[in-house]
Amino acid sequence: MVTVTSFKCGGFAMGISTNHTTFDGLSFKTFLDNLASLLSEKPLSTPPCNDRTLLKARSPPRVTFPHHELVKIQDSETTTTVFEATSEHLDFNIFKISSQQILRLKEKASESISSTGCVRATGFNVVTALVWRCKALSFVEEEDLEKESTILYAVDIRGRLNPQLPSSYTGNAVLTAYAKAKRKALLEEPFGRIVEMVGEGGNRITDEYARSAIDWGEMYKGFPHGEVLVSSWWKLGFAEVEYPWGKPKYCCPVVYHRKDIVLLFPDIGGDSKGVYVLAALPSKEMAKFQNWFEDTLS
Hints:
The chain is an alpha+beta fold. The chain has helices spanning 25-39, 99-110, 123-137, 183-188, 191-203, 207-220, 283-297, and strands at 2-6, 12-16, 70-71, 91-97, 148-156, 174-182, 223-224, 228-232, 261-266, 275-281. It has a 6-stranded mixed sheet with strand order 4-10-9-8-5-6. The protein has a two-stranded antiparallel sheet with strand order 1-2. A hairpin with an 8-residue loop joins β9 (261-266) and β10 (275-281). The chain starts with a strand and ends with a helix.
């Protein structure tokens, strides 16, 4: 569904709503590029691959890994709230992280990341580690430190499968990676160790792990399950689409009332390597989140 709002200045805003089973972020970018080509009366820029059988479950399905990031629908003892909208009042805040601050986070992480490991202090890993630490500690009382916190984030599996999916695969080709730790560890461990845990979550998703997760979904029809989900629009490139009337001035997700989803999107001011972090939390939790955010950046 597309809506267009025109302004007296001559500009306009496009609002687009779609279902995640139809597109993930990368294939939605392909859709927009193709839409722009059609509007310019040109051939499709990237003919889409719509063969959904490439991600079908095996027959018979085989779950070969534990999937702590997923919860069965029929498991009445476990509830998942990460996708649920809340009716409580939330404070919204956008935290800017400049490219220089990201560089300092990478340097801070590198001080304690194992030199023998296979995790790099990427921009995404350090920002996600920062969000995880702040979110987990934003409502911690003394007795909560021994409780476990699980962070979820999407990983594109196109290049992780064997054989790989075509880069033009147009569908939902992301799986939910996770990292988990006691909140006490997120309080006390060096920042680099938290970055490592985030990176290890992404590295966990191999071809066999992805097939196991797909088969798990076929068998149990469950949901991603965790304390916080990081959803990144940071480097998807929606604002780089060349429409007949030019590129968008800006492109970002619409705010929604979910306190356990933290959004990342490109810097509004033009810092191409900077990022904005959108969080929505109850007032007391937001104050703590902001304190831990500033503490970790310092």
